[in-house]
Predict the 3D structure of the following.
Amino acid sequence: DAGITQSPRYKITETGRQVTLMCHQTWSHSYMFWYRQDLGHGLRLIYYSAAADITDKGEVPDGYVVSRSKTENFPLTLESATRSQTSVYFCASSESTGTSMRTDTQYFGPGTRLTVL
Amino acid sequence: AQSVTQPDIHITVSEGASLELRCNYSYGATPYLFWYVQSPGQGLQLLLKYFSGDTLVQGIKGFEAEFKRSQSSFNLRKPSVHWSDAAEYFCAVGDQTGANNLFFGTGTRLTVIP
């Protein structure tokens, strides 16, 4: 049972380059999320997806693009990386609760540490 | 809007001592509350959660948390800390607008002294 995996675990890139971070989950969870973790800010939501082909912005979406053509994958793309996007990125997933009135447990991947030079 | 405050950035305790990590939330209705732990270089693991019912919630690894509506708090406790508990702890409140999202505090780093 692999759970939720992220790749790569570490990435160094240069300003202006396009970078894609991968996230894969084996539970068939409906919801998937991308967070970034920075000192003093905790985790902040970048984008989330309620199901395949349904995505929406979170708190800090600028400079990022997501897609979800399959339930199990949720890639995050930095179209033109900037130094301010140096961070640790976490992917998470959760089941659909069947109601908008409840937030269910999120399960996190191990994270990707991205450095933009 | 929902928000979470963890007033302690860093706490140091001796092994075997008791622990309390503070969490205050801002939310108008009954909140859904979570505590996660992050070991160095790892992802986040759920310790416990509160949705409704008994205000004292038991979690994994001997942790518990108490929901106090009057104080808007959800403090995490452990009676006797082990060296392996050294980690970063995050409190979170659930979004009830349909996004199924979590709003996290900035975290408390726990150091355990032998």
In short: The interface with chain B takes residues 31, 33, 35, 40-45, 48, 50, 56, 58, 90, 92, 94, 96-97, 100-111 of chain A (CB under 8 Å). The mean pLDDT of chain A is 90. The CA atoms of residues 5 and 58 of chain A lie 21 Å apart.
